[in-house]
């Protein structure tokens, strides 16, 4: 499946423009991480772009979100390792824990996008390009700030060998030129 087909498929299942922006941000982050690790940017990008394809049809049900998406994407011909990462990004629905670099990268990468978006919203210009890594890290420590963002998922960056500071820098760099609605 190529990127254009994947994006069209996503738009068939996801209506909310903010959720589409989240998926696009996750795609950019995953492509950046693939580049960092010399992995396949197309596959990693697909994982980021498509990971939440079933959120609206499952109403983000923690018991089914990810598994319904896996079925949709399997039928569409998405590569198996991408399906596995998408299936495992929601640990509540997956019978198999995250165990690959791609699994951990997707969990950390898609989650930090929410923290970055929330941080940008408190900046006067509300632009991701203005956000400093230290600001994201500082706000991660405040559990009341963006309370729904799972900090433990973001910290999975360390399971793939990237310290939090470097991870935040990479993710901000991936998003700096993106014009996303959040």
Key attributes of the depicted protein:
182 residues; mainly alpha; Hypothetical protein af1432; 60% helix; 0% strand
Molecular structure report:
There is one protein chain. With 182 residues, the chain is mainly α. The chain has a single domain, classed as Hypothetical protein af1432 (Orthogonal Bundle). 60% of the residues lie in helices and 0% in strands. It contains 10 helices and no strands. Helix 2 (17-37) packs across helix 7, helix 5 (67-75) runs antiparallel to helix 6 (80-88) and helix 8 (133-141) packs across helix 10. The longest helix is centred in the first third of the chain and has 21 residues, at 17-37.
């Amino acid at each position: 499946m190529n990127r254009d087909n994947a994006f069209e498929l996503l738009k068939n299942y996801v209506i909310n423009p903010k959720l589409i922006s989240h998926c696009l941000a996750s795609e950019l982050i995953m492509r950046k991480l693939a580049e960092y690790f010399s992995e396949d940017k197309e596959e990693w990008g697909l994982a980021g772009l498509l990971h939440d394809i079933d959120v609206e049809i499952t109403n983000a049900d923690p018991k089914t979100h990810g598994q319904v998406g896996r079925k949709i994407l399997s039928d569409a011909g998405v590569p198996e390792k991408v399906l596995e990462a998408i299936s495992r990004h929601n640990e509540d629905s997956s019978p198999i824990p995250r165990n690959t670099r791609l699994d951990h990268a997707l969990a950390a990468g898609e989650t930090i996008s929410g923290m970055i978006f929330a941080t940008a919203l408190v900046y006067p210009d509300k632009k991701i390009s203005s956000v400093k890594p230290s600001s994201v890290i500082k706000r991660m420590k405040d559990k009341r700030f963006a309370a729904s963002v799972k900090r433990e998922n973001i910290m999975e960056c360390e399971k793939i060998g990237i310290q939090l500071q470097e991870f935040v820098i990479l993710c901000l760099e991936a998003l700096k030129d993106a014009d996303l609605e959040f």
